[in-house]
Amino acid sequence: MVTSSTRHPLDPDPVRATKASAVFGLGLLSVVTGPFLGGLIPATLALLMARESHRELVAAEGFLLGARRLRNGVRLAWTGIVLSIAALVVLAIVGLLAYARGRGTDFDPLVN
Question: Transmembrane ranges (predicted)?
Fold first, then answer.
């Protein structure tokens, strides 16, 4: 009687998925560079690579490890995107305020 928890001796050893590690690294990079608007590029790459890595993890049927690293990488990538968008909004507000301050009024100061 063979149970599902025993492995066949010829089964390969589970290995860590390198794409999942790459997704995590790119997600981390996107969080670090997100406030400088540079986080969009690694975040986009991480999300594209995450889709392919997820397919490989499912197809490997447990012989590839890294699902948690993949999930955390995707979360970090989305956080990097949110930080980039927040930085863009802050820059737009600061730019509009600077523009409005520079415009001033066109009235003669002696006019009532």
Answer: 20-48, 76-100
Rounded (5°) CA angle 43-49-51: 110
CB neighbours of 16 closer than 8 A, spacing ≥ 6? 64, 65, 66, 69
- Please name every residue paired with 65 in a beta bridge, in sequence order, or none if there are none: 16
Q: What is the model's pTM?
A: 0.78
Position 52 confidence tier, pLDDT thresholds 50, 70, 90: very high
If one compares 12 and 79, the residue with the highest pLDDT of the two is 79
CB half-sphere exposure, 58, CA atoms < 13 A: 6
